[in-house]
ARHG8 protein
Amino acid sequence: SLLYLQEPSNKRVRPLARVTSLANLISPVRNGAVRRFGQTIQSFALRSDSKSPGCAQKSCSRSAAPTPPKRRNSVLWSEMLDVNMKESLSTKEIKRQEAIYEMSRGEQDLIEDLKLARKAYHDPMLKLSIMSEEELNHIFGDLDSYIPLHEDLLASLGEATKPDGTVEQIGPILVKWLPRLHAYKGYCSNQLAAKALLDQKKQDRRVQDFLQRCLESPFSRKLDLWSFLDIPRSRLVKYPLLLKEILRHTPKDHPDVQILEEAISIIQGVLSDINLKKGESECQYYIDKLEYLDEKQKDPRIEGSKALLCHGELKNKNGHKLYVFLFQDILVLTRPVTRNERQAYQVYRQPIPVQELLLEDLQDGDVKMGGSFRGAFGNSDKAKNIFRVRFQDPSPGQSHTLQANDVFHKQQWVNCIRTAIAPFQRTAAAAELKELPELSEESEENNPSAPNIKAQKRQSAMSGITEMELDESMSECGSILDSEEAKGVKTHRTPSGHRKSREKQLSGKRKETLV
């Protein structure tokens, strides 16, 4: 054994990072027993290569270079042709075959990733009891069932490929196969809940360590688990682009032209159906997470919603974070809360039905954060990317000044709200315009040059009292108080002889926008 230990140290030893064993699946922990278990497995793997424990220890003492991540084959179809074959094809035909090959290669990659998700993530986590079978089924869904689906397309493309590597017609294959993608409705509809559960499970140290170990392994290509689970959805949205690329390089007199146009129509219909189903599932997911502080906040239009037009985080005028949902028929402002490690959304104030919703697109600097209005203080705290939503009827006394993260997100919100209330605009526009001067409580604050009318002042005072009472009752339940609704407004006295003329001026200068 002494001679064996004195063997030259340059003898080739397979690096530990390349050993394929259960040790790669065990996360590094400080527990001594688990560490010894991992070392034992590693020593077994080295012995299979006819190495002694002493040599194994010597190789362990070296710092093995990290194995680079695997890379996908990016060879183009034209690079696999011989020179004579390439010269016999036109440039347009080469591009067409490139597009077909890209579709075929993408199917092969997808199949490999679906198998990898099962082999490298699902099965080890189940065997090591890192997650329960029920949790894994909820996260992975029926991912395995889609492997034969894509294998069928790949086989059909292989059969249609000639010995020289070209495909004459792909249209009939696609027209027959694409309707089968409706099978993804259930998987895509479950993605939101699956992602939420996965994020929750990542709080578990064992899950976190396992996923980190996989991320650092070459097979992952530096992709996390969710990237693999989301690959089918990202593949679905690529099909129309791939088909259009093939069609773009197909000669007009080719028999595939009309069939490819039909295939594009089919896949667009499939994606539309999947999106509709996914939207309904997403809508219901958030509805189930709403919490109400008052029974009056409940509205049948919330429970009956089938579409979520827009949702995301916004800030109110005090800088408090709100999570806002624009359902098809109602706008709901909420506060994100956590209940037993479960995300929930506490409804904030009274939801605003779309048909009663007014939108005001405010300019940067019109409102200042913290309840200060333009001209009150310096320019440092001027709010940007702001807009205001409110009831048409002043009786609820609710108005919300909201701030988006940037101008892009603000425009998204404004466009979504305009689209939602557009059907009600024509019938109610005239009546709304007449009521605007009486709804200008906050607009008066933001425009010191605009005078107030005594009737408005009285109404503002009453509204302020009502809002303060509402705020006091809401604060008992822990809701955020928005100073612009809770505080009484400062008004300017106007000589009574000028009321009518100034009212006419106000109607022309009003910044409030009905959309």
Summary: The longest helix spans residues 91-127. The radius of gyration is 32 Å. Residues 77-287 form a domain with the Dbl Homology Domain; Chain A fold (CATH 1.20.900.10). The chain is about 50% helix and 10% strand.
